[in-house]
């Protein structure tokens, strides 16, 4: 068998269209335009590219985009002051501080300073707790995108055994919580799990987010499993060029899985699309307007 490719680009494009449609509805019906503020500290090239992409897609969706680029020597006090201003700004419905931050700034303090209602990354401890206890909340964007694709390509999720490889606060842990909410039986594994291959071999769903290129081998997989590869790893090809690969050995996995996300073009495009969706949802909740259908999980 050859696995069905889960086309994240196409899925994200459809989600962005839904976002744009609802933004237009909010403008037309309520005179409201959702606004997203993105804060970048420093001049990391990868972060700059990512922030520009967020800004572009925000504007294309018809939303307001507020970008704050601060020098790398910006103090934690000054950054927290900016966040307080954004928390109080009624035109800003979503706030995202691009990570990682400089070593002299405490990331936890910055995340905790964001109003949970505007925390469109879903990283604030209040939102983390709400997700863990099954309450309505803003969900981290990458796991949210993964779940959307699993619902589409993974069949009926209830009762399936899901193995999440990775335990980060950004992807692994919230992914496990979302799958539990879908009535999956969930195992959280990681690079130090004993006999990981045997564990993966019993999984109907595998979400790889360990950050190691080609870590999950095709022979580990159960025949017919659905594989979501969150990894984005740049490897040297030996001729002064590099290429992006996932945490799963795609070439061996595609002949065993029933559906699999490619890298690139799988999970990655969904992250920004879900960020836009979260911003619209946050706007509606803050203004007690009806929430959009199809933009949340």
Automatic annotation (TrEMBL):
Keywords: Amino-acid biosynthesis, Histidine biosynthesis, Hydrolase, Methionine biosynthesis, Multifunctional enzyme, NADP, One-carbon metabolism, Oxidoreductase, Purine biosynthesis
Keyword Metal-binding: no
GO biological process: L-histidine biosynthetic process; methionine biosynthetic process; purine nucleotide biosynthetic process; tetrahydrofolate interconversion
Pathway as given in its UniProt record: One-carbon metabolism; tetrahydrofolate interconversion
GO MF terms, alphabetically ordered: methenyltetrahydrofolate cyclohydrolase activity; methylenetetrahydrofolate dehydrogenase (NADP+) activity
Tetrahydrofolate dehydrogenase/cyclohydrolase catalytic domain ranges (all copies): 6-121
Limits of the Tetrahydrofolate dehydrogenase/cyclohydrolase NAD(P)-binding domain: 140-286
Keyword Nucleus among record annotations: no
GO cellular component: cytosol
Pfam family name, one: THF_DHG_CYH_C
Reaction(s) catalysed by this chain's protein: (6R)-5,10-methylene-5,6,7,8-tetrahydrofolate + NADP(+) = (6R)-5,10-methenyltetrahydrofolate + NADPH; (6R)-5,10-methenyltetrahydrofolate + H2O = (6R)-10-formyltetrahydrofolate + H(+)
Function: Catalyzes the oxidation of 5,10-methylenetetrahydrofolate to 5,10-methenyltetrahydrofolate and then the hydrolysis of 5,10-methenyltetrahydrofolate to 10-formyltetrahydrofolate.
The protein's assembly and partners: Homodimer.
Protein name (record): Bifunctional protein FolD
UniProt organism field: Saccharospirillum salsuginis
């Amino acid at each position: 068998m050859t696995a069905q490719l889960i086309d994240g680009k196409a899925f994200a494009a459809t989600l962005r269209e839904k976002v744009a449609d609802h933004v237009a509805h909010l403008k037309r019906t309520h005179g409201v335009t959702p606004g997203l503020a993105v804060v970048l500290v420093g001049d990391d090239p990868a972060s700059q590219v990512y922030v520009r992409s967020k800004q572009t897609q925000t504007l294309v969706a018809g939303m307001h985009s507020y970008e704050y680029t601060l020098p790398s020597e910006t103090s934690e006090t000054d950054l927290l002051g900016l966040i307080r201003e954004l928390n109080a700004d009624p035109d800003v419905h979503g706030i995202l501080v691009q990570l990682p931050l400089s070593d002299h700034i405490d990331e936890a303090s910055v995340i905790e300073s964001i109003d949970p209602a505007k925390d469109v990354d879903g990283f604030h401890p209040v939102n983390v707790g709400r997700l863990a206890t099954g309450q309505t909340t803003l969900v981290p964007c990458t796991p949210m995108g993964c779940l959307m694709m699993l619902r589409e390509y993974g069949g009926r999720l209830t009762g399936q055994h899901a193995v999440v490889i990775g335990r980060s606060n950004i992807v692994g842990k919230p992914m496990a919580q979302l799958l539990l909410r879908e009535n999956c039986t969930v195992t959280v594994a990681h690079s130090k799990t004993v006999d990981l291959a045997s564990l993966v071999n019993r999984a109907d769903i595998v979400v790889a987010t360990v950050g190691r290129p080609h870590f999950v081998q095709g022979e580990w997989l159960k025949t017919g499993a659905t594989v979501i590869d969150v990894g984005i790893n740049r490897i040297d090809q030996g001729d002064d060029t590099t290429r992006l690969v996932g945490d799963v050995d795609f070439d061996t996995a595609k002949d065993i899985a029933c559906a699999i996300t490619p890298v690139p073009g799988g999970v990655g495009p969904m992250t920004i699309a879900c960020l836009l969706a979260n911003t619209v949802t946050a706007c509606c909740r803050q203004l007690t307007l009806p929430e959009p259908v199809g933009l949340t999980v």
